[in-house]
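Our preliminary data section would be incomplete without showing what the modeling component actually yields. Below, a chain of 72 amino acids is followed by its predicted structure, encoded as tokens that our downstream tools consume directly.
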Amino acid sequence: MLSKKVEEMSFEEAFAELNDLVQALEEEGRPLDKAITMYERGQGLARHCAAMLEKAELKVRLLNGEIFEDEV
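Predicted structure:
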């Protein structure tokens, strides 16, 4: 699960791993140190997904003529 660097992941890969982490963290009986490590990874994945969504939204707005490149 923790093999690939977050920055190298596609949105779909990062989102799928984030969903897996959320499900795993909801299970009981996980040692605290493992849960913290998983939470940290999840935060990185969430930030990565948010940044990719923001970039995609900006591109769509540019394509729709809502904003211009010099405004970016």
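Residues 32-63 form the longest helix (32 residues). The chain has two helices and no strands. Preliminary results of this kind motivate Aim 1 of the renewal.
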